[in-house]
């Protein structure tokens, strides 16, 4: 059981308290944002904790042993630093949240309640609700390799080893026409055959969407690229981007398209689950120990 510092315990025992909660949020890009449920801004050292109207936290769930716990924080999107665009773009995914109990009469970050990371974020109306997960959540993540027929690596990463620096696997281009926020048309993407950039990634390098990326759902021969999810900002003709190819993670694609079969990180000949329901047939099972992959 956690013990309260004597000063805080004595103040809480009086029944009349001047304590509030402060949250210090650190995004993965290093940006730090402080908010509090107090009715006025609080300055502690060099950090400003904004009185964000309607900001509140649910009860924090704690479990025994090594089970992960968590809770939720919710509030209105009122601070200029927490915008709907940044939330939708995923800038707050995986951000660290430190929760403090603070005496606003003499504020100091001397009692840390919890350290957590932000998980799923929902945006009902003009509010946001963020799931927070404590450090034990990392123990629930899959570790090591899974025995699957498809590849477990991402195209171009260290396990895949395929170089994505050269065309046509990586190209720079510009937007010819915007299809709302659901896709674009670019003559630069028309140089490759249809479907080549499906499952790939497009990163905008200029314009209002600079720094935003989109996963490619479909690639057509006329250079049309459809996105899996709508962008959170508008794009305009002339906006620059970098486009990388995708992979469907099948062995045949790895071998025939990328010539990278030795680095395939899957098990293409692993029996499917329904294999246990099959029975022997004449003429089957004649591999005689020969290699299946060449």
* Low-confidence segments: 63-68
Largest sheet: 9 strands, mixed
What is the CATH topology of the largest domain? Pnp Oxidase, Chain A
Coarse morphology? flat
Number of helix segments? 3
- DSSP strand content: 25-35%
Structural class comes to mainly beta
CATH class division of the largest domain:
Mainly Beta
Helix content: under 10%
- In round numbers, the mean pLDDT is 80
Widest beta sheet: strand line-up: 3-4-2-1-7-8-9-6-5
State the order of secondary-structure elements, H for helix, E for strand. HEEEEEEHEEEEEEEEEEH
Q: What report would you give on this structure?
A:
This protein is mainly beta. It has a nine-stranded mixed beta sheet with strand order 3-4-2-1-7-8-9-6-5, with no helix packed on it. Strands 10-16-13-14-15-12-11 form a seven-stranded antiparallel beta sheet, with no helix packed on it. The protein has three helices and 16 strands. The chain folds into two domains: 6-140, Pnp Oxidase, Chain A, CATH 2.30.110; 170-244, Elongation Factor Tu (Ef-tu), domain 3 (Beta Barrel). The longest helix is centred in the N-terminal third of the chain and has 8 residues, at 6-13. Mean pLDDT is 80; it is low at 63-68. Helix content is 6%, strand content 30%.
């Amino acid at each position: 059981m956690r013990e309260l510092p004597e000063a805080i315990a004595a103040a809480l025992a009086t029944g009349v308290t001047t304590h509030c909660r402060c949250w210090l949020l650190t995004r993965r890009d290093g940006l730090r944002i402080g908010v509090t449920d107090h009715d006025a801004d609080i300055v502690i050292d060099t950090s400003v904790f904004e009185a964000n109207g309607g900001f509140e936290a649910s009860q924090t769930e704690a479990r025994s042993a090594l089970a992960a716990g968590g809770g939720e924080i919710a509030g209105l999107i009122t601070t200029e630093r927490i915008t709907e665009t940044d939330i939708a773009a995923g800038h707050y995914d995986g951000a660290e949240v430190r929760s403090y109990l603070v005496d606003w009469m003499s504020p100091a970050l001397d009692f840390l309640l919890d350290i957590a990371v932000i998980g799923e974020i929902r945006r009902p109306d003009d509010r946001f609700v963020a799931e927070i997960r404590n450090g034990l959540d990392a123990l629930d993540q899959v570790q090591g390799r899974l025995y699957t027929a498809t590849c477990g690596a991402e195209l171009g990463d260290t396990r895949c080893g395929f170089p994505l620096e050269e065309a046509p696997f990586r190209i720079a281009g510009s937007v010819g026409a915007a299809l709302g926020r659901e896709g674009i048309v670019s003559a630069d993407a028309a140089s490759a055959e249809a479907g080549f950039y499906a499952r790939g990634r497009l990163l905008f390098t200029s314009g209002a969407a600079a720094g935003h990326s989109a996963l490619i759902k479909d690639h057509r021969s006329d250079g049309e690229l459809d996105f899996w999810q709508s962008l959170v900002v508008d794009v305009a003709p002339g906006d620059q981007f970098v486009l990388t190819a995708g992979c469907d993670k099948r062995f045949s694609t790895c071998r025939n398209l990328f010539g990278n079969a030795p680095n395939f990180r899957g098990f293409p000949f692993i029996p499917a689950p329904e294999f246990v329901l099959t029975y022997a047939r004449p003429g089957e099972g004649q591999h005689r120990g020969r290699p299946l992959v060449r």
